[in-house]
Amino acid sequence: ARSAPRELLPTCTMATTAAMLAAAAAARSRCSLAGGTRASVAATASPEEDIRRVIRRLSNMTARLGPQYEGCAGIAACPFVSEDLWNRALKGGACEAVIAALLRFPDDAGLLKEAFAATSNLARAGTEAPLRLLHASAPSALLVATASATCRTQAELRRAGARALAQLVGALSTTSNGLAETKASVPDFAELAEERPRERGIAEALVEALQEEEKGSEEDGEFMGSCCRAVLALSTTRAGRRRLLEAGIVGALAVAQGNCAENYEVQLRSCLVLLQLLADGASAESGNSMLDALSAVLRAMECFSSDCEFLSAGCSFAYALLVGHDSAGAPKMLTTHASTILAAMTVAPDDAEVQRSGCWLLTRLATARGAEVGGELTMQGVGEAAVAAMKALPESVEVQIQACNLLRALLEVAAAEGILDARSRVFRADGCSVLAQALQRFPANASVSSSACSTVAALAGDSQADVRTALLEARFSDLLAEAMRAHSDDAVVQGAGLSAMLGLSTNCPEGRSKCIAACAFELTVQALQAHPNEASVQRAGWQLVTCFV
DSSP 3-state assignment of 214? Predict the structure, then answer.
């Protein structure tokens, strides 16, 4: 019954349930339980017995191993597919009885196995059962049991305990009340955990489970998903994140990602946990392990290439990691997965996080390895993707900045490598229009102004006649002048504005006339005087003066 999907189990009458309980108890009673003090356990369930009798035996015969074993086995085998069964079990004290049995006989392998299975089953029985288990101190009981000598010598038994723990914490984390009560009751979640001795806790148990689990059945994948869900719940507090990092969670998640490459929940929860960990400086602490995790995330993005939620989480993680991680291996990894990032931007055109992060990642790639990949990026349509991002999200300042930076990097690489098609492709994608709109929409934002002006400079320099004509028709001479006036004390904007005007004016009488009409000469003199120590301002300014005279 436990191995069958819950949605496929039939709604059971009490007689059917009792029969299942009796069969489970009878089957188990025929087995000799290693480590126990008895040779066999008599089957006491009958077809007429219901769940309340099983629980009553658990509660009343607390000192006898046989009834305790049978009761846990019965609850473990019970398919909680109806609300009536849930209510009977919970009102009868099933949660409390199972945990009491677990604490009373921590060295009996047979009972531990059934108690672990019963706890997992109860954790899936609605929303009240996990809370009852929490109030019965199930997390600490499971930790004690999995750390016992019996579990330490039996890997399968230890994994069964970890499954129960992961199932419970995962179930508690799915509701706000459950998560709030868990944080208040379980030491691993509390801020005081920072000062506690580093004894084995939930974080350590989950990390051990993730590292030990091997690639296997669908049931194993479900367990790994529960573990990742439980880890994500732990990572919502600063103390929990610290415990997880100290326990080696980054490496453990890498194992889970590798073993469950096509398991959506494992991949998504792992990615979200890694994002949480980066908030506490995990990049510096985990080093190459985080880069290994990034590689796994990028591979998963290929597998779940149509899921916007996962693409957003994956791009966010890659961005958050590489912003603060200057690794020589990162550009090579991005080269391998450039098409994945570009595909994510295409699939999720309205997702600001995907567009912002995607543009930044491709900019870093173009800057670091432009000579090697510039032509490929151009042919893949990276310039068109940046323009599309600016069109789709015109109100997002960050998207406008990162898309402009990507266009500039791509155009500069194209100019250096003699890739003539790059400017034409950006022009045909309506790049001139989106750059003008960015300058007009955010005139007071210095970052937008500098990024847009730099991109115009890259687009205008040594450009084809049709591109330069389009820039002039879009009134870029006036737009550049307005940006320079609005940010006269910003050397970056001044240097970018002067470079763009130089691109419009060089070998172009019409462009020179329009720039002069926009007071470019006066603005150039002011910039030279205001920023005497800025090389970019001085270089572009004097070149522009020479062009004008």
Answer: coil
| Residue for token pair 């998560």 | 179
pLDDT digits (tens, 9 = 90+) for 231-276: 888 888 787 888 888 888 888 898 888 888 889 989 999 999 998 8
pTM: 0.75
* Amino acid residing at 331: P
The pLDDT of 170-183, averaged and rounded, is: 68
Residue that is written with structure tokens 């609850």 in the block:
75
Cα–Cα distances (Å) from 26 to 20, 40, 47, 204, in that order, read 10, 10, 12, 36
Q: What is the 3-state secondary structure (H, E, C) of 167-205?
A: HHHHHHCCCHHHHHHHHHHCHHHCHHHHHCCCCCCHHHH
Q: What are phi and psi of 199, to 5 degrees?
A: -75, 165
Supply 435's token pair.
Answer: 């750059």
Q: What is the total residue count of the chain? A: 549
Residue 179: burial class (beta carbons within 10 Å; 0-12, 13-18, 19+)? middle
Provide DSSP, 413-427. Answer: HHHHHT-THHHHHHH
**Angle in degrees, CA 541, 544, 549, rounded to 5:** 125
In whole angstroms, give the CA distance from residue 106 to residue 346. 55
Cβ atoms 502, 544 nearer than 8 A: yes
Helix 397-417 to helix 382-392 angle, to the nearest 10 degrees? 160
Distances (CA, A) of 501 to 19, 26, 258, 412, 414: 86, 89, 52, 17, 20
Residue-level pLDDT at 1: 37
Residue 35's pLDDT is: 34
